[in-house]
Amino acid sequence: MLLLSAHLAWKRAKTMTVKTRLAIVEDNASARIHLRSHLLALGNLDIFSFSNGQELKSALRTQSMDIVVFDFHLGQHKNGVEWVQSLQKAGLLKPSTGVIFVTSDQTPQTIGQIIDLQPDFLIIKPYTIRTIKQIMQQYLSIRRLTLGILERIDKGELAEALRELDDLIANPKYVKQQVHLLKLSGKLLLQNQQYDKALALYQSVLKRSDRVIWARWGLVKSLFMRGDWQRCQQQISHLLDIQLTQNKAYEWLACIEFEQHNYAQAERWLDNIKLSELTLQAVRLKSMTYEMLERIDDAIALLEKKRQTALSVREHREELTFELADYHIKNAAAVNLEQRKEDLYKARCLIGNAGRSTGDRQIHQRRDYMLSLANLLEGETERAKRLLENDWMHNFSRSEVNTMLIAAQVWQGVGDAERAQLILQECESKIAGLGDQVEQSILQTLLISNEKQLNNADDLAMQYNQRGNDAFIAGRHHEALACFYKAYRLAASIPAFAINLLQCMVKHGLSSYRGTYTLSLVEDLQEYPLSQSNRQRLNEIKRQIASAPTAFTPKPDDTGLPDVGAEESDKGNADLLPSALH
């Protein structure tokens, strides 16, 4: 304890000499100046001001920020939540960057989006000078307290960061900061794949108060990541009665059904969200659901409608235009060369429209890869190769996964299969680092589809299977389960992968994992033409199941948490908001 105190004292002394870099993103000039003047009075801050997220993005390419203060509504640009998600995906925000939101909009849709992001603080306008100073001083004191932990997070030293954080949480001196420390601990446990510990943490918070929304979402994410989708769905259903979380709950339920190939049910969940309230992520999920149901025309119609409602927000219109062009390209790829002309013409018009008015390298890259793919579908390989000569076509460090998946198809199409595979491997790494599980699921589905199209599925499944074996032997059962599951999804026709997944599930007493049920998998394997050794393994697994049959029967929710009933949801929203602020 003495050693820890000395270390903290050194860290505090260090922070007094280094100014904290803070960015304000606010489209209203007078509000921006007003907020900046209040924050300057706190001292020891370097403050930078921006009118929108694009300006901040440009600045982050050459300098980092410790804290970003976002207004939610940013005029004719994406909202603050969307910009934070975009900057995180591009790797332009450090993992330790503090996120604070300021908004005058208290509608459930807006507050729900902000809460789902789990910012460090939410400040409601109009605020007083005293309020803004109190909140910022409180947050800055927490950053000083956890500076060493935050530095470890940026270095990827999550296990060490968690150990130091546990010491702070156990110290009675910091009882007032415990809520913030627990929130940080939950996030780190999920990032470090310690799903059981994360689940226990969120359950302990909810036993004290079942109305803490960040803990509710943490519980959902823990259950989702550990593959316990039955209990995850039951917990999400509790959030349908809370207006602040209703749309996101529908999105999560649709995602789980989508992952289990229950596309009609996924569509029904998403139909509960009004078109005007569909986030870009929900639009993408719904259009993919239509695609899986072989209704690409419905996907195109949805994107057209949403694009018309997004005319006032340039980045929304641009993203939806690219998505729409992508579906026209998919339509073209499904027919012969003569029938492709109309869809490819529409795709080219849309791509040109989306990429015309921006100097963003990532947008240029996405535009040119989509045009290259259109060229390949027309049989114009040389034209596609010429586009690949541009310097921005080769650096994917800040590219969106969607762009990289198209790039892999293009490089495969021009005969460079090795480069295509390297791009897909980088995609996998980026997907794994995303904090949004719904987006992870969407992109993982696209990645698997790409691997199958490029005939790499069996080879990649072998790699996942080997990684699963290594993790299984080392006792990292969550990692092993995830790897065996990916191998099984990529190559379900290879019995060894299904048996490895089943063996891992039975060893850890799981009745289901990510919608795959133990007993159903046993039944499916009975029909496989198994080798003698695999048949022996399956028989041994069946004996283990027979010795404890109730362990492998799907169970009702046993988290022990009280339900949030519909009859208290209206009153509950008022009580939930203060908890969400922290």
CATH-defined topology of the largest domain: Serine Threonine Protein Phosphatase 5, Tetratricopeptide repeat
Q: Largest beta sheet, briefly? A: 5 strands, parallel
Count of strand segments: 7
Rounded mean pLDDT is: 87
Task: List key phrases describing it.
single chain; 582 residues; mainly alpha; Rossmann fold; Serine Threonine Protein Phosphatase 5, Tetratricopeptide repeat; 3 domains; 5-stranded parallel beta sheet; two-stranded antiparallel sheet; 7 strands; 66% helix; globular; disordered C terminus
Layout: helices, strands, pairs:
Elements: H1 2-17, E1 20-25, H2 29-40, E2 45-50, H3 53-60, E3 67-71, H4 80-89, E4 98-103, H5 108-117, E5 121-124, H6 129-145, H7 147-154, H8 158-170, H9 178-191, H10 195-208, H11 213-225, H12 229-239, H13 246-259, H14 263-270, H15 280-292, H16 296-309, H17 314-333, H18 341-355, H19 361-377, H20 381-387, H21 401-413, H22 417-432, H23 437-453, H24 457-474, H25 477-490, H26 495-507, E6 512-513, E7 516-517, H27 518-526, H28 532-547, H29 569-581
Parallel strand pairs: 1-2, 1-3, 3-4, 4-5
Antiparallel strand pairs: 6-7
